[in-house]
Amino acid sequence: MSLRSAIEGVGSALPKRIMTNADISKIVDTSDEWIVERTGIKARHIAAEGETTRTLAVEAARKALDHAKLAPGDIDLIIVATSTPDKTFPATATQVQADLGVTTGAAFDVQAVCSGFVYGLTIADNFIRGGQAKCVLVIGSETFSRILDWNDRTTCVLFGDGAGAVVVRASTGLGTNQDRGILQCQIHSDGRYVDKLHVDGGPSTTKTVGHLRMEGREVFKHAVTNIASVMAETIAKAGLVPADIDWFVPHQANRRILEGTARKLGISEDRIVITLDQHGNTSAASIPLALDAAVRDGRIKKGQLVLMEAMGGGFTWGAVLARF
Ligand code: UT7
Are 61 and 100 in contact (CB under 8 A)? Predict the structure, then answer.
C-alpha cells in the first residue's frame, strides 16, 4: 500500500463585477476583435472595494470544504498560491486560517505566479506522502486588477480576479497509475527569465507594490515549449500516453497557447477545459477555477484522469496528473 493525495472537494469564487472587452475598450485603445483574436478572452471579473485575495480565498475554501463534506477543523495545512496578497506579511494563508477558525496545523503562501497552484498541489502531495499532513487546503487566489497598469493595453486586457480551492486528503492506493489521487507532479523554474514577466516594484526595492510588466511574445514562445515538454514528461513518468488523459485543465493565459500545446501532444480540443473566455488570466487561480467549473457541470467524473499544467513568471512551470 502507498499513500496517495486524493482530491476530495473543489470550490471557487469570483468578484461580482464583470468587465467585458467593450468595457475595457473605453479605458485603453483596444477592441473586442483584437482581444478575442489574440487571446480568446471576452470578459473578466474585477474585484470591488472589500473584495480581496483573502475574502475570495475564504469563499472558495468554504465551498471546497462543503463539497468534500469536511469541516475547517479537519484541515491541518493551508497553502495559498498568490502573487497579490492582502499584505506583504503575514501570509494570506494565515489570514484564511483565521477566517476559517482553524487554530492548529500550519499555513503558508507559495509564490510561483501563474504556476502557484501547480506548485501548491505538488507541496501538498509531498506533505501527505511524507506523512506530515493528512488534509490540505490548496488555494489559488488573485486580484491582479490591483497590480495592472490600466494605461498599458498590452497587459491590462489580459488579466482578471478570482479564486479556486481544492481539499486534498490522504488515502491509500496500490502505487499504480490506477490509484485515485495525485499520480505525478513535476515542477521547474529557470531564473534567467525573471525580467520577462515581473512586477516593477516591491518592499525591498521601490517600497511600492509596482505594476505588472510582460514581454508577451517572449513569454508566449517559452510557454508553448515548456508546457508541452512538462506535460509529456508528467504523462510518461506515470507510464501513460496523452490518449489516456480524459481532461486537460490548463492555466488559462491565452487560447492560442492551449491550442499550440494541444497540437504538439495530439490532444483534441474537446478534452480541454477552457474558462479564459469568461475569466481572463487569473494567474494562480485559473486552474482551480476551471477545475471547479468542469467538476460541477459534470464533465470531470470520478475515476477520470485529469492533467493540470501552468507556466508563469520566473519562469516557473509544472504539471500535476491526478485521478479523480
Ligand atoms: O500567465 C502567464 C503567462 N502569460 C502568457 O502566457 C502570455 C503570453 N503572451 C501572449 O499571450 C501574447 O503575446 C499577447 C496576447 C500578450 C500579445 O499577443 P501577440 O500576438 O504576441 O501580440 P504582439 O505583442 O506581437 O502585438 C501585436 C500588435 C502590436 O502592434 P504592432 O507593433 O504590430 O503595430 C501591439 O502594439 O498588437 C498591438 N497590441 C494591441 N492592439 C490592440 C498589443 N496589445 C493590444 C491591445 N489592443 N490590447
Answer: yes
Right CATH for 181-323 from 3.50.50.60, 3.40.50.1820, 3.40.47.10, 3.40.50.300:
3.40.47.10
Residue 139 C-alpha cell reads as 488555494
CB 45 within 8 A of CB 161: yes
| Cβ within 8 Å of residue 182, ≥6 positions away | 4, 5, 6, 7, 121, 125, 168, 320, 321, 322
24 within ligand 1 shell (Cβ under 6 A)? no
* For range 301-318, the mean pLDDT: 98
pLDDT digits (tens, 9 = 90+) for 176-220: 999 999 999 999 999 999 999 999 999 999 999 999 999 999 999
Inter-residue contact 244 to 231 (CB < 8 Å): no
Range 311-315 average pLDDT: 98
- Helical ranges in 266-311 per DSSP H: 276-279, 286-296
pTM check: above 0.85: yes
What is the arithmetic mean of pLDDT over 14-32? 98
CA of 28 to the centre of ligand 1 (A): 14
- Ligand 1 pocket check for 115: Cβ under 6 Å: no
The mean per-residue pLDDT over the stretch 241-263 comes to 95
d(CA 244, CA 52): 39
Range(s) for CATH 3.40.47.10 in the chain?
2-173, 181-323
Pocket test residue of 38, 261, 317 for ligand 1, highest count of atoms within 8 A of CB: 38
- In sequence order, what are the residues at sequence separation of 6 or more whose Cβ sits closer than 8 angstroms to the Cβ of residue 14? 45, 56, 161, 162, 163, 279, 289
Domain 2-173 coded CATH 3.40.50.2300? no
**Catalytic sites, residue numbers:** 114, 251, 281
In contact, 42 and 278? CB cutoff 8 Å: yes
- Cβ-proximal residues to 23 (8 Å cutoff; 6+ apart), any chain: none
Residue nearest ligand 1's atom 2 by CA: 312
CA of 312, closest atom in ligand 1: 2
